[in-house]
Amino acid sequence: MKPAPSLLSSAFLQPAGQALPAPLLALRKQRGAALVDMPMPTRKTENWKYSSKYLKLTDEMAASLPTTGKTGSALAVPGYKVVFINGVVIPEASEYPDLDNILIQRFGDLSEAEANELAERLDSTLDAKAVQFAGLNTARFEDGLLIRLKPDAVLDQPLFIIHEVTADASGSAFPRIFVEAGRNSQITLVEEFISSGQEAVFVNSVTEFTLAEGANVTNIRLSMDGEKVQHIGATGVTQQRSSRFESHCVGFGGPLRRHDLRVRLEGKGAECKLNGVVVTQGTQHYDNHTTIEHVAPNCDSEETYRNIAADKSHAVFNGRIHIHPDAQKSNANMSNKNLLLSTGAEIDTKPELEIYADDVKCAHGATIGQLDKESLFYLVSRGIGLREANVLLTMAFINELVAQIPVDAVKDTVQIRLNQFFDQTFQEV
């Protein structure tokens, strides 16, 4: 007789804070009811095959973390910012742009009509079956941020979203963002995930983007949570005609890091570019799952992810491109390259290409390898120390993607963290 499957603890479905408009409270209640008896992922759950053993949720983590604390962002934020602490917006620590054609509102400040409209659109960019934990975020969020760009609106500098978790006690946080980019609008949104404290906590974040015709959105996601933070995140995107979405995801490992990125190209001529860099060490784990749906014809997608794993850490990449029957003249390319820095590290990669149209140009590939010994020998023979040689070759492996990050403050922060990684991984000989 097979053992009964492990279910999501009912402790995670207890009512959260009530400071939201009635339509959003009703949505939360509906999603919570749908999650009763939700099976937890196991190794037999295909999209959790390599990550299920790292997911360790306890009842102590179910309680909402308090919304007190102070931000400790590693970014030198040059302008606009919104600060979340434990999933709740902190207005007094934020600096909103003062522009008539760009509206930024907390969920709790929405009118009932606005909240009703938002409730109908939340989760519209994500597949509930494929991204199981996005529904838990909807059942538990206590606050959120709605960003609306009117047609032709252009934000003159990046908007930084600082997500901080204070792990002074065990608990959970559920940050939520919904971005509506109107026709021909432009925005660069930077999300930084950080934490303080040493207790085990659970973060479940969801960000959604809807791009109208001609909209141009750049999203930078910087994952730097602490060593006791399990973080499951999801980003959903829908694109209309001639819109462009650009994503730069940079992640440093932890006990469990998981990010699902799903993009639907629904309008003719839409295009997306997805870049990702992951670095793990010790016994850390990081899992990236991406999906690009080519629904409309004449759409372009370009995806490049690179992983580096050291010590006994584990990195996972699963990338899927789906070309629908009507998506003729699609152009899609996916590349995943992986670097193992020790014999104890593990990287699993699974590129997928599913094509149902005949007039397309598609390619995908994946490689896993180690630093080239001949290249190391060449550098050392030219008087470069072994540690510096290792650093040079490793940095060269990902520098192409780091250099493409369009915000200098983020590039500087990433470089500092990478230097810390190099210091811990490579020792002078």
TrEMBL record:
InterPro entries: Fe-S_cluster_assembly_SufBD (IPR055346), SUF_FeS_clus_asmbl_SufBD_core (IPR000825), SUF_FeS_clus_asmbl_SufBD_sf (IPR037284), SUF_FeS_clus_asmbl_SufD (IPR011542). The gene is sufD. This is Fe-S cluster assembly protein SufD. Residues 169-397 form the SUF system FeS cluster assembly SufBD core domain. The lineage of its organism: Bacteria, Pseudomonadati, Pseudomonadota, Gammaproteobacteria, Pseudomonadales. Signal peptide: none annotated. Pfam families: SUFBD_core (PF01458).
